[in-house]
Amino acid sequence: MKKTIAFAALGISVFVVAVIFKRGVSAKWMLAAHAVSQVSPKSAESLQVKIDTLKKANKNPDRRRGASRMELSEAELESYVFYSLKDDIPAQLDSVDVQLGPGTVASDTQLTFMSDSTGNPIVDSLIGGTHNLFLKGKLVGEQGRGKFDLDEIRVDGIPVPKILIQTLFDKYVKPDYPEADLKEPFDLPYGIQQLKLEPGKATVVY
């Protein structure tokens, strides 16, 4: 949710995933293809309303779990990342293209790093500028628990070895989200019982 150039970019990617998990927009939803024109403050607002609905339902002790469902569109997910999470991403987010498939989620993002983004002149000289980041993984959500398996990361078209991911995750994500763990299942937020990913949409059962 950034190698030499790729290293920092991969870190940002994993950071974005973690932020979305933290906010309750399961990493799953986080990422999927739409025209730029469909990314809008209105779509971001629409997803926020749905998140608020989930929160409210979760606080109702008399409500039966799993009795309701809602759909999340790719445009809503992209817009939420772009407008609502943008300030949480330690790089300039130029664009985000989310691609939902059967049990999979992917994102194609463009990030611009400032020339002094890390404070290390050597690293900054390598990662400064604009880079394209592609991330894809499998996401399942059943019985209130979710599991995200990261399958692929590419930076500027170059595949990133999986062995680097945990190191970068520890460096960029763990300091702010100490409980985050890429390898472990997690509780779905706001009383969500099931999450189903299909081409173009995510269905939430709560």
Walk me through the structure.
By secondary structure, the protein is of the alpha+beta class. The protein has one domain (5-205). Helices cover 31% and strands 31% of the residues. It has 5 helices and 9 strands. It has helices at 5-23, 41-58, 74-84, 121-127, 165-172; strands at residues 69-73, 92-101, 104-113, 129-142, 145-155, 158-159, 186-187, 194-198, 201-205. Strands 2, 3, 4, 5, 6 and 7 form a 6-stranded antiparallel beta sheet that branches. A hairpin with a 2-residue loop joins strand 5 (145-155) and strand 6 (158-159). The longest helix is centred in the first third of the chain and has 19 residues, at 5-23. The two termini are 23 Å apart. Mean pLDDT is 79; it is low at 1-37.
Layout of secondary structure:
Blueprint: H1 5-23, H2 41-58, E1 69-73, H3 74-84, E2 92-101, E3 104-113, H4 121-127, E4 129-142, E5 145-155, E6 158-159, H5 165-172, E7 186-187, E8 194-198, E9 201-205
Antiparallel strand pairs: 1-9, 2-3, 3-4, 4-5, 5-6, 5-7, 8-9
